[in-house]
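Many introductory courses stop at the sequence. We go one step further.
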Amino acid sequence: MDLVLSDVHANLAAFEAVLKDGEKLKPDRILCLGDTVGYGPEPVECLELARKECDILLMGNHEYAVVHGAEGFNPIAEEAIEWTKDQLVAQLGKDILKYLDSLKSSHTQGNVLFVHGSIKDPLMDYVREADSYASFRRLVDTIRQDFHEFATCFTGHNHRAFLGTDEGFIYPHEVIHKFFIKNSKLYVCVGSVGQPRDGDPRASYVMFDGDWVDYHRVPYDIERTAKKVAERGLHPFLAERLFSGQ
């Protein structure tokens, strides 16, 4: 049984809540699909906790940006990346940049692929819900044409919890949140621990036993994280968005 999470984004309160909630399910392993740092106020604490608790820790685009620069980021995100880099180097030393740069962008387990972004670009590309027939066809074509050496792809990056299939999108909710996916060609978007953007501010993660994927949402102390954002001089928007899950 694997616990799969992504996009902690330096939100320690959310990360601790997920690990505590998942502990009762007794996972054999914990896999983090990247973006442990970025945006949030506790990059050092979250990275250290991830290195301790996660059996697989992938690189996300925010780890990449810390090492190589935040090209293409909006001004708020870029400012947070520079602050994050300063914090990591000041507290953990310059070798932490070599460690981040050494992280892999994908992990294969049998016929299951784990990435931060998508199969087309494990680091940067987004799996998005379709807003037109053309964009849905692109998802369908990717699933039918690019899923060769594996059946299922777990991903984060989009901060939204859903299954992307070649027949449509499936959204977990309070009544139905467990799905049989064995050998199914689809994307499992696990959502975000530290900055959900699907209208639900609770932290998101999934459990996977090889046959079934089960989505979990966990409330956490958002006020605690928002206070840290203010204390550490980050942009207030990074706190405000947490309350609405956007």
